[in-house]
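Task: fold both queries, return tokens.
Query 1:
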Amino acid sequence: MHILASVVYLLCAVASLFCTLLLFSTYAKDRTPLLLWSTLCFVGLTINNLLLFTDLTILTQIDLRLPRAICALASVSVLLYGFIWEADRR
């Protein structure tokens, strides 16, 4: 069961990385500011998923809940800031 959980955590990180790359490639082509904010959010979510994988499978003796929570909060905050910034510009 531990191996299956590790695979799921790793697949989540890969999916987040894939979304990050897709958002960045679209941003590089279109230069839409909201795509930039979304890309930055997914960079943080990818790091968060990698921290989750590291916390629960590799470094089980070290508690990484606080860095994971800070990373998730920062990621969502960046996206929220981008939404507010774009709403004010219109």
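Query 1 returned. Query 2:
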Amino acid sequence: MAKLYFSTDQKEARRLSYLYQQNMLQRIYHGIYSDDLHSSTNLIRQKWMKITAYIVPKGILSFRTAVELKPIFYNEDNHIVFVTSSYVKTIILPGLIIKVSKGDSNSYVEQVMPDLARSNLPRLLLENLTVIRGANKGIKTIGAEGVETLLAKEMRHHGEVFSNLIRDEAKQMASDLGYEKEYDKLNHIISSMLSTNSNTNLKSAYAISVAKKIPYDRDRLNLFENLYLYLKRSFLKKRAYSFSNTSLKNLSFFESYFSNFIEGTEFAIDEAEDIIFSGKEVKNRHADSHDILANFRLTCDPSEIDITPDNSSEFLAILKRRHAYLMKERPEKQPGEFKNAINKSGNTIFVAPVDVTGTLCRAFELYKLLPEGLPKALFIHFVISEVHPFMDGNGRLSRIMMNAELFRAGLYKIIIPTVHRDNYLNGLRQASRDHYFTTYCKVLDQAQAYVETVNWADYGDARHKLEIDQADKTSDEGIPIFNRVLRNLKLSDFN
């Protein structure tokens, strides 16, 4: 693996110079060498902080670099770093430009590495409100909208009092460093964010949402936007089905059975039949029995499952009402109330409680733009799964909301049989972590296509079909046979 070498004293300088003369090292800059004799561009960009600290030893990272703490894309060949020191200079390295501006590099700073500092928060806010002209326009600063967004993040995490502390420190700093005009802009932004009447003067959508006390998770919204675009360019099949009371009841039984199995509420099918069809509670499992029964009652009630939201207020209300019914025998899970603490699954941390309402409402704006049926169903399912708005029951609720979309559109509902569970969860993980939606969408599309092959009008036929296809088995046991069934299905075209 390529390494950089720095001349730290005269002895080391002579040694490195000798190796360079013997063509064993490549010289990057005065006193900096690499053992990569071909191209050191990637290495330089990876080690840019150490290189900057060496070349500009009394400099500080400033302007946009102080915010992002990474080299900024300049053109296809170069990235750029902005530094403040006691002189003006442009340093050009392979793939990296260090742009040094003259200014105070001792005051209002904070360390990012033992030998490298950056402008502190109030100072970098002022720097990034500077009007830039010439070649670096649009590159050197994040601009007013970027400053608004950054302030909104700070306010969301630290509260409104913190914004006033920033304003107070920036006022003195502006006088000391000559940023009076920039301070006026900053003062106006903070005032707008703290006022319920003037936040329309803000440019950043995120800052406006925070000012209005409805913040959202910007990273999750970006994820939802990517899924929305993926669904818009895909060609999804419409698998129409006219439900009778009997077929809806039979399908809803297996929908509820498998949905609860995914979440660890495991019963034998015979036990689930006793709970749902005979009202027999499994001994010592009152809450578990209710979970599967409540899920069934929600999904087989045509007057309930036919309801889909027309606006964001209805969306929130439907979520809370269905969750309250689903979890009513688990009062410790706060049925019908959005979570008040962070929840996570493995390494995935879901949306923070303060951001739940805003994130759901912003996601709903995208939901409205999608066609009815499978596009809306896949989208709303993923949003609820990814936001995880409640303490528990989010997976089951996401599948209930998904199937309400399909039922309303006159399409087959989706069940996730036990054999398909691992593929389903893997698809969710890939979508969440990597913005890769193909597995997620294909797994649910396969599940709907499979549901289409079952005779739901006859309960015995339906159960027999699921069992001979080994849909009720674990992935280890049933996947070879189940996959052979899936290979014969006609699926949607995902791009």
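Both queries returned. Flag for query 2: The chain is about 55% helix and 10% strand.
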